Amino acid sequence: MSGPHSDFLKLLGELSDTLDQLAGLARRKVSCTREGDLTELDQCMRREQVITLSLKTLERKRQALLSEMGLSEVPLNHLFEHYPPELRLEARDTVDRLQTQFTRYQSAAAAARSVMERALRDIESMMPENAPPLPSPDEPPPKMRTDLRA
């Protein structure tokens, strides 16, 4: 059976695969950051941008198909209830897979963001303008005490 319902399930499958790719890139960004491989990190970020742009196309298709089916206001987790009986099980499985992939992506993206932010803070603290001022040669070092008991 081909039609908007089947096309929408295919689209959700594509979206799930795209989220899986993004989660993989996020995990790769974590390892690149930890290894200090800035070239590979840059490549990951570029691939991520390309995939993110493809998500915009998928979103437009998703909205068009939902409108065509008359399901624009139906939440994703209740979508299968509005499907023909022969596609309900497939619809529920597809939605479950998509939600699982989205959760995995969120987790991987949060980990990548955390690791990258920590690395940036470390780099910032090493910058000369963020270092504590050096004492002048004529001044004693800070917290230096003289023993007056002698």
Instruction: Domain count, please report it.
Output: 1
What is the average per-residue confidence, as pLDDT, rounded to a whole number? 88
SSE pattern, N- to C-terminal = HHH
Structural class: mainly alpha
Shape: elongated
How are the elements arranged and paired?
Blueprint: H1 4-35, H2 38-69, H3 88-126
Explain this structure to me?
The longest helix is centred in the last third of the chain and has 39 residues, at 88-126. Helix content is 69%, strand content 0%. The mean pLDDT is 88. The chain is built from three helices and no strands. Helix 1 (4-35) packs antiparallel against helix 2 and helix 1 (4-35) packs parallel to helix 3. It is an all-alpha fold and 150 residues long. It has a single domain (4-129), classed as Up-down Bundle (Methane Monooxygenase Hydroxylase, Chain G, domain 1). The protein has helices at 4-35, 38-69, 88-126.
Sum this structure up briefly.
The protein has 150 residues and is mostly helical. The protein is built from three helices and no strands. The N and C termini lie far apart (99 Å).
